[in-house]
Amino acid sequence: RSTWVKWLPALAHSYNSSIHSSTGYSPFFLLHGYDPRGFAELASNTEGKDILRPQLASESANSFVYDLELHRRKAREVMAIAQERAARSYNKGRRDVSFEVGEKVLI
Fold it and tell me: For burial by CB atoms within 10 Å, which of 16, 31, 48, 83 has the most?
């Protein structure tokens, strides 16, 4: 039980590299613009090669930033839709009730 701290980096990596149903993207991708390498891929790097950000040879900086902004905009749009859906579901059975001063209520 006292060694749970050692698992936090692996847990954070797993969470941040997983595709979230509300956005369709991983948080890592939305922040950096590419998917992270997995632990298995990193562990198999036995030759000691430098691990660099994956990049296409023809990729320019402007198109990379433009594409990343498109993905972020799409993620914001689907997040707004998911929030609206969750609010509708949460508020479906609720009703607005107001009380007068002095009324007895069950808390």
Answer: 16
**Model confidence over 28-83: pLDDT tens digits?**
988 888 888 776 666 665 555 555 555 555 556 678 778 888 999 999 999 999 99
SS3 for the chain is CCCHHHHHHHHHHHHHHCCCCCCCCCHHHHHHCCCCCCHHHHHCCCCCCCCCCCCCCCCCHHHHHHHHHHHHHHHHHHHHHHHHHHHHHHHCCCCCCCCCCCCCCCC
CB 24 within 8 A of CB 75: yes
Contact 79, 23 (CB under 8 A): yes
Pick from 42, 34, 43, 36: which is nearest to 15 by CA?
36
